[in-house]
Amino acid sequence: MAAPWITIKDMPQHVEEEVTIKGWMYNKRSSGKIHFLQIRDGSGFVQAVMVKKEVSPEEFEAAKKLWMEASVEITGTVRSDDRAPSGVELTVSNIKVNHNPTDEYPIGKKDHGVDFLLDNRHLWLRSQRQRAIMTIRERIVWSWRQFLHDRDFLLVDSPIITGAIGEGASGLFELDYFDQKAYLAQTGQLYAEAAAAAYGKVYCFGPTFRAEKSKTRRHLTEFWMLEPEVAYYDHKDNMDLQEALVSYTVEQVLEHCKEELALLERELSPLKSVLEGPFYRISYRDAVKKLNELGSSIEFGDDLGAEDETILTQQYDRPVFVECYPKGAKAFYMKENPDDKETVLCADLLAPEGYGEIIGGSQREDDLDKLTARMESDGLDMDSYGWYLDLRRYGTFVHSGFGIGLERTIAWICGLHHIREVIPWPRTIYRLNP
């Protein structure tokens, strides 16, 4: 009877049993009569020990000739090993080589430049570090969906091709759409607003596109964004929801991704401090004053740049909301602040440790006349927004929402310097392949 095929992840449940694992060899060392084969299968990593006298000469010789990333099927007995990261190793009784590369694997043990690794991103994803990052990415996505599902939010997918501008026109990818002008979506928010009028609590989640020619470590031209929208939530309700989501996300990663965080050498105390109290809240006006005191030349009316966000977040040990930006610095759909008509009811959530903005949100302008006036002053094509204005014509209502960037959130939680590592196939102004 053939040994059952199991995953490396499940090996600790099969100690002293004969099993088969199927995967790839990512490293090897030999000491004459023993081969130590490091095997991965997508679920984990394990060492397979092949003793010359316990296998056929042909199999031992075949293992000796294996290159990195050879695909193999290995049968053997699972043994407990407290020294192993997984707590087990495999004593080999049989090996089947499915494919042995004909030359050396391009990504070796030596250090490689970032451009080389990105050119070989399809192979770089196989590394332990990248697997750890992608595992945390998946956990964050799962946490977001679970958080919203448990609060009765309905997923409503928004279109990627759109005729309406959600943010500034300078950041649009324009398309020829048969005989019309169209754009890659910058946000699903406008559509989420329509869905909130139908279903109350909704969210969309998918790729978004920004054509800004930015070269900073925080920017991608294609990234993923979660965008909840809630009927009858005001500005404060909106921030409370954001804080609960971020706290839950950090809690889930700390609970379920200990090994991955350790592999990334992530210092955990800054993440744990996120859970120790409420997030900080500061008005835009006070933030400008504080930044001026700290040496920034920012003036009222300017949006916070990356350097300003870094300076500001270094003053706090937990995320901080910057509330009520000037109208001119923010999008047309944001609600005028009744207590300060130069500003709007919005907030950016800045992550600590200098990571800057991860969420942008606002209460939406529900007054048809005010919204129309703002759109006209911004020079928007009103014909493209007839459907959006209908939301204010037929049962207008207080509502709020936000967008949280997946990649920026991952970079912060993982403690990574550059955002390009946290998405499987990064797109920047200079990179379209692989």
From TrEMBL:
Pfam families reported in the protein's UniProt record: tRNA-synt_2, tRNA_anti-codon
Keywords, ordered alphabetically: Aminoacyl-tRNA synthetase, ATP-binding, Cytoplasm, Ligase, Nucleotide-binding, Protein biosynthesis
Catalytic reaction(s) noted: tRNA(Asn) + L-asparagine + ATP = L-asparaginyl-tRNA(Asn) + AMP + diphosphate + H(+)
Compartmental location: Cytoplasm
Domain of life of the source: Bacteria
Gene Ontology, cellular component aspect: cytoplasm
Residues in Aminoacyl-transfer RNA synthetases class-II family profile domain copies: 136-424
Molecular-function annotations in GO: asparagine-tRNA ligase activity; ATP binding; nucleic acid binding
EC identifiers of the protein: 6.1.1.22
InterPro entries for the chain: Aa-tRNA-synt_II (IPR004364), aa-tRNA-synth_II (IPR006195), aa-tRNA-synth_II/BPL/LPL (IPR045864), Asn-tRNA-ligase (IPR004522), Asp/Asn-tRNA-synth_IIb (IPR002312), NA-bd_OB-fold (IPR012340), NA-bd_OB_tRNA (IPR004365)
Enzyme class: ligase
Biological process according to GO: asparaginyl-tRNA aminoacylation
Family, similarity comment: Belongs to the class-II aminoacyl-tRNA synthetase family.
PANTHER family: ASPARAGINE--TRNA LIGASE, MITOCHONDRIAL-RELATED (PTHR22594:SF34), ASPARTYL/LYSYL-TRNA SYNTHETASE (PTHR22594)
Assembly, per entry: Homodimer.
Name of the protein in question: Asparagine--tRNA ligase
Organism: Dethiosulfovibrio peptidovorans DSM 11002
Gene field: asnS
